[in-house]
Specification:
Blueprint (H helix, E strand, L loop, with lengths): L4 E9 L4 E3 H5 L6 H8 L3 E3 L7 H16 L8 E5 L10 H8 L7 E4 L5 H15 L4 E9 L9 H4 L4 E10 L7 E10 L7 E2 L22 E2 L1 H22 L9 E4 L4 H10 L11 H4 L6 H11 L8 E8 L3 E8 L1
Parallel strand pairs: 4-5, 4-6, 11-12
Antiparallel strand pairs: 1-7, 1-8, 2-3, 6-7, 8-13, 9-10, 12-13
Helix pairs in contact: 3-4, 7-8
This protein binds acetyl coenzyme *A.
Acetyl coenzyme *A (ACO) binds next to helix 2, helix 6, helix 7, helix 8 and strand 12.
């Protein structure tokens, strides 16, 4: 069996509703200038009332299926990376499978925070290695605005909602599309307290009648996250490139986790990528956590920023901490 895999289709979706910095200024003590200077974010998408994680995942999946010339019936597994599923039980994977009309297809969620999509690709590689006929729907979808503390100006300006999808299958001549060449993952729980959503889980259970507290939302030490994110993404990209005898010059497009423009620029600079090789859409979406990488990858491809034959390097980083890199040949 080949050690490379086919990425047959890509899709993305963001809700129609847009929250601009000017909108935020109306209810948070901040300014457009502060947000743009510190984060590069100008606007983010936000679900409409009643719109849930799997609605976005479904829309992105339809795009990926169209893109690949497949139908939902061609899918054998559903993996959804998210920290904001519609419900804890049933999982977003199972709900999405149902919305796709799939019965009996294994479906589950995977939580690696913002690195969830890249971790899910690794899980999908394992599934395809085990079941060569598999065609795995790999989704990153988040309603981060449902876990945003709108009274905390240090975090609430950062996040947005969205979804991105890739379909992974065996590398055979029949399975057209890009090729996932290799990946590298890492995690270190030492830094868990620097970026958390605690409330309502077994470590901080709620009782009926409890008032929902700040711990129900994203809490973050931004400065520390920034340092670790840059260092870890660069190191794991260098490890993966070195394994293949490659240097940044061999890579055509770098797609880093879209958390913050300053992190993206620092990673690009440290890895010696000129700005024009670094894909950025954080200005329009904010940080969409597990959706960030597939949303950027699918949008970059749709916009023509990734061309046939080009080599793409992915760098991800998230709470846990978790981080990873991937190499894809289009
Ligand atoms: N508007 C105006 N002022 C603000 C805002 C805001 N939205 N947020 C914070 N400030 C103020 C603070 O209150 C503080 O004021 P003080 O000096 O009077 O106390 C001042 O700005 C500096 O605050 P810091 O938190 O130190 O600001 P910093 O320069 O570190 O920028 C930021 C904050 C943007 C979050 C930065 O730390 C960062 O980029 N961190 C990276 C983390 C990140 O992007 N995480 C995303 C989620 S994690 C992930 O995706 C893996």
């Amino acid at each position: 069996m080949s050690s490379t895999f086919a990425i047959q289709g890509l899709g993305f979706y963001a809700p129609a509703r847009i929250l601009t910095n000017a909108d935020l200024v109306k209810f948070v003590d901040t300014t457009d200038e502060w947000i743009i200077t510190r984060t590069g974010i100008r606007e983010r998408h936000m679900v409409a009332p009643g719109e849930v994680c799997t609605d976005m995942a479904l829309a992105a999946t339809h795009m990926a299926l169209d893109n690949a010339g497949l139908t939902a019936k061609d899918l054998t597994h559903v993996v959804v990376a998210t920290v904001t599923p519609d419900t804890s039980v049933p999982s977003a994977g199972v709900v999405l499978a149902k919305k796709l009309g799939l019965e009996g297809v294994p479906a589950f969620d995977l939580n690696a925070a913002c690195s969830g999509f890249v971790y899910s690709l690794e899980a999908a590689r394992g599934l395809v290695a085990l079941h060569p006929e598999a065609r795995v729907l790999v989704v990153g979808a988040e309603v981060l605005t449902s876990r945003t503390d709108w009274t905390d100006r240090g975090t609430c300006v950062l996040f947005g909602d969205g979804a991105g999808v890739a379909i992974l299958a065996a590398d055979t001549p029949a399975n057209k599309g890009a090729r996932l060449l290799d990946m590298q993952l890492a995690a270190d729980g030492t830094y868990g307290p620097l970026l958390t959503i605690k409330g309502g889980y077994s470590g901080h259970p709620y009782k009926i009648g409890d008032v929902v507290g700040h711990e129900n939302y994203v809490q973050m030490n931004g400065r520390e996250v920034y340092k670790h994110a840059v260092r870890s993404m660069c190191a794991i990209c260098e490890t993966l490139l070195a394994r293949h005898g490659l240097t940044p010059e061999d890579v055509d497009v770098l797609i880093p986790h879209q958390a913050n423009l300053r992190i993206i620029e620092a990673v690009g600079k440290k890895l010696r990528f000129p700005d024009e090789k670094v894909f950025v859409n954080v200005d329009r979406y904010g940080n969409t956590s597990a959706a960030s990488i597939p949303l950027a990858l699918a949008e970059a491809r749709a916009l023509g920023s990734i061309k046939d034959g080009q080599l793409v390097l992915i760098a991800t980083f998230g709470g846990g901490f978790t981080w990873g890199s991937a190499l894809i040949r289009f």
